[in-house]
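Field: sequence (string)
Field: structure_tokens (string)

Example rows 1 and 2, in order.
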Amino acid sequence: MSDFESEIAAQLHSRAESLPVDDQVRDRLLRRVRTHQRRRRAVLVSAPIAVVAVAALAAALIVPSAGHPSRLRVSAAPAVHGPQSTAVPRQPSRFSPSQNSPVLAPGGGGDLRWVDFVSPTRGWALAEVQGRMRVAHTSDGGLSWAVVGAPLPTSAGGPAPTRLVVALAGNGSGAEVADLYAYTGTGPLGTGGAPRLYVSLDRGSSWQAVEFPGPVLGVAPPPGPGRSTLAPRASEGSLWALIGPASRSGRTSPARLEVSTDTGRTWKTAASIPGEGSIGQLARVSQRGGFVVSKSTVSGRSTSSLLQTTDGGASWQQLVDPCGSLPDQQLSAINANALWLACGSEPAGDLQAKSVYFSSDAAQTWRQAASVGLAKAAPAGTLSRTGYIVDLAAVSAHDVWLTLGRGPVDVTTDQGRTWRPAFSLPSGTGGAEQVTFVDATHGWAVTARGLWRTSDGVQWQSLRG
């Protein structure tokens, strides 16, 4: 209490004592003085606290999400296939798994089905956990994985998604993860595929399913900055989905490219893709450019062709395919001009004839880099006959990794002149299922026995422990 207030209280007390009234009246007056003093002190103490509380509340109402300092976070609308509609604003939140998130075995154990890394340390994976498809996250390069969000809403008995694609909210490996896309894709020789795309706009916390007439065989967000396709993909721009042909009620729908400008909420058909065969792979090299590998069967004989678009799928041009007579093909683009193409014959048991080609002029011409047949054993330093082509990952005009199911991961560092196994897998493990890189030195390989990693592009180590 201030000196002024003390002086007023003393004067009131003195006057009450000197009043010509009885003791009962005097006591009531003194009690009123003391009550007034207590109320005054309470107001003086509580006023600063109220001011601080009001300021904190106002700050909470006007400060946006920490994931993006310029916009408020809102819920996402369900995804639909049909005419384009206005996008609902969406911004990511900073990743923080709960304490109850399931943790996978070191290196993912045998649960990982597909991985997609956005930096040498940060990655996401599609994993099978207790019979359900889940998404897992790592922040230490794949050594440890924590399951996040809800299980994907797959249909009972239907094909499960086997591919996962991550898009970033902004350019650069340090940007926040925005959207996740899961789909079935294609298996060996272009088999499989389901007409459903799973979209998560809140980093795996929830999922919406988009139904298409045909199987979803590929998903490609806009490429990141720079000329290399290894740059992290951004969420801003058009999203591509490659839809394979399908037959329903006696009618056949052609393969086509679907385009979404609102991160997968709504879709619009860009154009049908020429040809009557199935579609195997989509490789996007720029905002409006990409390649598609297709396969057709005529009189029991399978052939493949290579198609290119430079206008976002509005039109397609058929290119010379050096592997036209070999149906099993995988394409990997370093940039819009430099491409590697691996192709193989119908497997004979665990063996497959293979060829690898390189183009430096956007698939206008090709140079054969390596080849191996089935007639005789392959000498050391050449492609392996064992295993069939599953995946291809190129990081330069010299360095490329070829994933072989039921076989090794073959690597060349001299433009295909010599090849060797990147690492040794125990016999009977089924080989590798995927190989992927975020730059020229940091890569991962998914196997049935867990994840392998390289940090220098040369030496590989098992993360299983």
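Row 2 begins here:
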Amino acid sequence: MLWSYFSSIRWQDAVDIVLNSYILFRLYVLFRGTNVFRVITGIVILWFFQRMAFAIGLIVTSWVMEGFTAVAALIIIIVFRNEIRSVLQAKNLRAILWEFSYKTEETPIEILVESIFELAKSNCGALVVLPGKEDLMEFVRGGIPWNGLISKEMIASIFWHDNPVHDGAAIIHGNQITHVGTILPLSVRENLPSYYGTRHRAAVGLSEFIDALIIVVSEERGEVAVAKDGRIKNVRNMTELKRILLGHVGVFRKKSKYPQRERLEMGAAALASLVFITGVWFSFSQGLDTLTTLKVPVEYMKRNPEMEILDASVDDVNLQLRGSGTLIKSLRPDQVQVKIDLSKAVAGGNTFTITQENVTLPPGVFLNMVQPSVVEATLDIPVKKELPVQVDWVGKLPDRIRVSSVELNPEKVVVIGGKHILDKISTIYTKKVPVNNIDEAGSITVNLALTPASLKIDSGSKEKITVRYSVAKGTETL
């Protein structure tokens, strides 16, 4: 059974699986460690259980989970729009499509520590944020993009009391100050010391939401404090602050094991993406097969322009299709086509067998049966030929009655048909005219009998023939 599934995969399906696996893998690379990634993981797990519920027939459970999955996907876009924007704001397309961040710019700990204590020594207030793995842009407001390299002079100028942005926070990513004048959320806790001002409450407030480390320099007391995980404590000297900063950002300094662990993680993520997308593909294209029948018109392609199709046994065929219920329900008639190649057709009768090659189907839908599977088509070079008309009398005249004369109007007609057919025809007959009740002269109007049916009467000729006949009584009969 499994082999039959894999044998039915087209090269387009393989490209489809690989492409979507890579897209999923890149989403993991871009959003790992963020709140978005954790929510997406929850949605994937919810989708997995929804498919299981559907497979075992839990209709209500499956329906409820499907609704939750759709709503959750919308919530991600609305709630985490800032986090998504910050991840996708790359300087070039390469960072989104294939670049890997194995190395991170190291924060210059020594410069930062010395700058902080110089600010404290001069009673210059400061608020510095060092993000962790979680994105902080959805929790902060305002701020001016800076993107300047860290230096003592840079930090001192930002928090100089006459600088318009000195009351806001400076955000540090790697070796750069990315934003200044940023407003942080204030903590509403009542157990904080009463002498803590706005800077300290802002530091604690942000640390309650995400895993960032916030350094506070008190303007009144010249003290240095550090807030993390909702807690804040004073730092006595540069050695202690350096140790705290190394504990927060020092993971990027371990160059010996990190790249290898990172590559193993990336390899596992790539494999998981491929397995997941393959499972999704089988779920949509193969799982829970549903049958449906469509009536599809037959299209004749690549016909010799000198020949015409004079007759065909069918105009459309019935296709029995199979596929997952989801794909079958979304199937449109214009997505299914039946085409017959006439490039090798000859003048006269031709027989074609409809196979998978003649049927165009959307991915994931497969042909089960065709009715009828054989189509006959007559092709020939159309020509015109003038043929005499003859009445096709049937039956037996009454006794002692005979037809003495017959007059036809018109006596000849122009017939259009295939050259090979008309070459074999010298007379065109009317439809059958019974003679059983003829006992006197008269006239009738009768149609022509066009055999085979591919023959047509030219527009300049009459399709009905008027037959005038005379009778005579005697011993001879017709």
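free_text_note (row 2): The two ends are 75 Å apart (CA to CA).
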